Amino acid sequence: xxxxxxERVKQxxxxxxxxxxxxxxxxxxxxxxxxxxxxxVLGAALxxxxxxxxxxPLENLLxxxxxxxxxxxxxxxxxxxSTLALAMGVAGFLLxxxxxxxxxVPATLRAGAGLAFQDPKQIRVVVEVVAMRTxxxxxxxxxxxITPGDIRLALEGFLVHSRxxxxxxxxLFTGTGGLIVQMILTLTTVFYLYxxxxxxxxxxxxxxxxxxRQQLGLRLRFHRTVQHMLAATIGKAVVLGLCLGGLAxxxxxxxxxxxxxxxxxxxxxxVVGHAFVWLPLAGVLASQGRWIEASTLSVASISAAxxxxxxxxxxxxxxxxxxxxxxxxxxxxxxxxxLGSGLEGLIIGPAAVxxxxxxxxxxxxxxxxxxxxxxxxxxxxPESTQPPQP
Length: 390
Prior knowledge:
Layout: H1 5-33, H2 37-65, H3 71-102, H4 105-116, H5 120-140, H6 148-159, H7 166-174, H8 179-206, H9 212-252, H10 256-266, H11 275-287, H12 291-319, H13 324-341, H14 345-366, H15 371-380
């Protein structure tokens, strides 16, 4: 006998109301945290990228050193230490860059404090010094099409935030605040994702249609993708930039900091990125009649790039992630993230690539492609290709 419409409504109405209530609750929470979305996204991306290489090794070390502690206590301690280490590392790197630009330790400390607490005088000092340094760089790379005025506007737009102090109370109610408050929000997000992220990941995996072997394969793929990104992509770019900067300074007297920064950015480009650094410098030397220095710089740069490429290839092969498409995707994510989200995009972009990679492996496992078997086959496969030549 067909059900009466009134009975059907009576049966489904509680479920509809419950789903509507859940949707309203989710919308309410999202509307509340929307003003601090950028800090939360940045914190989630940082936690995603650093969990396998910072939190996980420390948690394993604490498990061996403190076996009598409860797992939650070890996780809390590992999260706290990892977050503090990450904060000190970022702060140290920023101070190192400021010192390299300013060149004076007391002035660097004053500038760092001024940037943190939004001192207009110190912000102007940093903007002018960076613009002056950048002007020297633009003379070496005129084809970039960037003027010192563009650099000033970009720096002022990035560094000038609401001041810390009275604005902190405003932040508590409206979600806006100074740079230091955004850093606190980001680090707080990182800490809680370090501590609770593994539980969330296990919960999601146990409720997905994956076998234990497939879950293990996904975790291995995630860890190896992060290691590949840090070692074979970002690590290679940093080493290449430092080498090119040191060679340019020792051979021809160019500014080591500026050339290194350009080299780090260009080093993200696969295979030929280094040519965008040393080739213009060699052209400047040749135009000045310094042919010996130009030739020496060219040969030394190509040799250094080749050695770094060989070392990177062997490292990627050892990790089982020597996929050229992955390097290309990471390169695109860094460039696209920087263009779309500024400096935060340098972190958010690679995090998005890792997420997509894990999702592809998940979908593959659902449709007959086992990530664990793929990991085993890639680890057992003999080396049949040679690394690309720079």
